[in-house]
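During the reporting period the student researcher (J.K.) took over the structure-prediction task from the postdoctoral fellow and processed the backlog of single-chain submissions. One of the processed entries is reproduced below for the supervisory committee.
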Amino acid sequence: QVQLVESGGGLVQPGGSLRLSCTGSRDDFNLHIVLWYRQPPGQEREFIGHITRSGYTYIPLAEEGRFVISRDSAKLVSYLQINNLKPEDTAVYYCNQQGIWGQGTQVTVSS
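J.K. obtained the following structure tokens:
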């Protein structure tokens, strides 16, 4: 089964941007939808959006375009770009594919 590794998190000031990565371990990573979630401290994990095999994205948390999901099939990677970061974006961010979760990457937004 595929393994997923998230990266790119860190400490960012409000208003900044981050691009998180979700890297798959096998070529079939490109054949399946990739879902992105986040879990703020003390809260439930919440769905951010997804990108299909063909690149169609669905992001209910669009929030005026702050979240952008993409993928690079050649690199077996999906990206989650978050712009204009706010303190409430502080969370562990996860990707998921076929029920498999990565380990998550921590994003902390603070001045």
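The committee noted the following: The chain has no helices and eleven strands.
J.K. will present the remaining backlog at the next meeting.
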